[in-house]
Amino acid sequence: MLLRAALFSLTCALFVAAAISTQQETFRVDLLAEKEWKGDGWSYKDCSLETDLVQLTSVSMTPEPPKAGQNQTVAVKANILNVIEEGAYAVVEVKFGVIRILNRTFDICDEARRANASIQCPVLPGYYEIEQTVALPRGIPPSKFKASIRGYSVLDEDLLCGVATVDFSPFRH
Ligand SMILES: *[C@@H]1O[C@H](CO)[C@@H](O)[C@H](O)[C@H]1NC(C)=O
Ligand SMILES: *[C@@H]1O[C@H](CO)[C@@H](O)[C@H](O)[C@H]1NC(C)=O
Ligand SMILES: *[C@@H]1O[C@H](CO)[C@@H](O)[C@H](O)[C@H]1NC(C)=O
Predict the structure, then answer these.
(1) CA distance 148 to 146
(2) What is the position in ligand 2's atom list of the atom closest to the CA of 103?
(3) I need a surface site. Which of 21, 104, 111, 143 has the fewest CB within 10 A?
(4) The whole model's pTM is what?
(5) Total tally of structural domains belonging to the chain
(6) Is the CB of 23 under 6 A from ligand 1?
(7) How far apart are CA 3 and CA 120, in angstroms?
(8) Which residue has the higher pLDDT, 104 or 5?
(9) Which superkingdom is the protein from (predicted)?
(10) Is the CB of 105 under 6 A from ligand 2?
(11) Is the previous residue joined to 65 through a cis bond, with omega within 30 degrees of 0?
């Protein structure tokens, strides 16, 4: 199903964007409490612990608000605290309104290859700025989309925890 596949790739883009990168810079560690980023029609809540391997420092969406039928770019800045190796995986649950449309485990390194991300596993520790663009299909239901993401390393260490929402309903305000 096209819609399901596209939503799955949006979720993966969020996650892969968080895990994979374009450029490595100075290694930094920010030990912040629970973080949340919001914009017009979307939000991302970070439920990672300070010890999770992926520490997000920024999440943004272009354009805003996200709309069916447009190319959506997700930009993420993150510190990776330890190497992410083959075998890392994520459990993703996607809901439209109260209806769960997806609950699946996927291989992060495979998804990065599939998404043609610029850096591939193994991802070395460091500071990364990542952008991923996804074509949102026209047929997205005009409703609230919620994706919960939990990532784990091949050794089952916690990688990342997040809850993303995108509101596709026409009367959001
Ligand atoms: C999305 O991007 C693709 C590839 O760059 C382009 O062909 C397409 O026209 C874009 N779609 C929209 C709605 O802008
Ligand atoms: C979702 O999937 C995960 C692993 O694939 C499983 O452990 C969990 O029980 C599932 N949740 C529900 C509500 O089915
Ligand atoms: C993957 O990315 C490379 C370089 O950015 C590009 O040349 C290639 O066409 C892309 N392949 C796909 C399948 O998107």
Answers:
(1) 7
(2) 1
(3) 104
(4) 0.78
(5) 1
(6) no
(7) 26
(8) 104
(9) Eukaryota
(10) yes
(11) yes
Q: Is residue 172 part of a domain?
A: no
Q: Give the Cα separation of 21 and 121 in Å (integer).
A: 10
Q: Which ligand is nearest to the CA of 72?
A: 1
Residue with token string 């450029």: 23
Edge-to-edge strand ranges of the sheet holding 158-167: 35-39, 42-46, 158-167, 144-152, 89-96, 99-107
Cα-Cα-Cα-Cα torsion 160, 64, 117, 79, nearest 10 degrees, comes to: -40
pLDDT, tens only, 124-160: 999 999 999 999 999 988 999 999 999 999 999 999 9
Residue 173 lies in a domain: no
> Quick one: which of 94, 68, 79, 70 has its CA closest to 19?
79
Look at residue 160 and tell me if it is in a domain: yes
Percent of the chain scored above 70 by pLDDT?
A: 79
- Whether residue 121 is contained in a domain is answered as yes
